[in-house]
Amino acid sequence: MENEMRSIGEMARDGGLSASALRFYDRAGVLVPAWVDPVSGYRWYEPQQLEEARLLARLRRAGMPLADIRLVLAGWAGADADLVRGLLEAHLRRLERGLSEARSEFSTLRVLLDHRENPMTALHTATVRLSVPAPKLAAGLDTVRFAAGTDAELAMLGGVLFDIEGENLHLVATDRYRMAIARVHTTGHDAPRTQVVVPLPLADAMRALLTGEEGKEDKEDKENIQLAVDGDRVTLEAGDRQTAAQSLGHEFPDYRRLVHLPAGRRARIDTTAFREALETGPVRASGTREQDGEPCDLSVLRVTRTGP
Question: Where are the transmembrane segments (predicted)?
């Protein structure tokens, strides 16, 4: 009899199932050997069971539940093609639904992981709409625009950061060598802190919108205008006019770490007097600027307890 049958090792080799899997399916009553040696307990299979073992191996690799595997094998043996086809299609739908759900969950987990590694990324996802005094926003853009970077290799600095928190809108620009910050009071924002980097072309378009085509402040500038951030799209509306564009998809440096300095490293100054001191005070020849190679002079400042 043994010469006409396949041993469990041969069935495992040719059928694509391990010997332990064959023993499991025997105990489960799914693929029962034709004969078991009563002394050694060794399992033997008939040659025609090889096709069944190979089918079982395919269903196992596809992750089909054991109960459905039983039905497929029964339908296969009974030539019930409709039953087999229906079970296969139902399992495929489960797999596709599970894959869709897994993609959704993994996408959420990746976002959570990004936020855990860099909490600043959470500040870019909010939808915000707020009111801003047009003259104040114009003045804020004028204050920071000069400091924005132009180096293509530092794309994250090629814009103006709009940092919205509570009733304050902070405008920030830096090219690594200098930094400018302006604060504008807003209304209508009750969402969590939101940050978005406005590319320079859009920042300039905003300023032009606030100024008007003829270079004069519009009458509407005396009114509040609407600033909207929806995902990565930024829109400024002034009356029936608006300008909008995509924000920069880059992380802006954490400027607060640079401006929140310990005592002894900050001084409050009179801006008019400070400007006059820079314009009329002594300078030190410095050769050329590192960022653009242009010649320049330096004003050296020293902060004391009484000011710079």
Answer: none
Share of the chain above pLDDT 70, in %: 81
Region at 159 (left for phi over 0; alpha for psi -120 to 50; beta for the rest): beta
Contact 284, 297 (CB under 8 A): yes
- How many folded domains does the chain comprise? 3
Is 256 inside a domain boundary?
Answer: no
Torsion of Cα atoms, 162 then 164 then 168 then 173, to 10°: -20
pLDDT for res 156: 84
3-state SS, residue 101: helix
Q: Are 295 and 254 in contact (CB under 8 A)?
A: no
Supply the CATH number for residue 66's domain.
1.10.1660.10
Q: Name the strand (E) or helix (H) holding 128.
A: strand 127-133
Give the end of a domain, one of 79, 112, 145: 112
Residue 255 domain flag: no
Full domain range(s) for residue 293: 262-298
pTM of the complete model = 0.52
Which residues, including other chains, have CB under 8 Å from residue 160's CB and lie 6 or more apart?
141, 144, 145, 148, 171, 172, 173, 197, 198, 200, 203
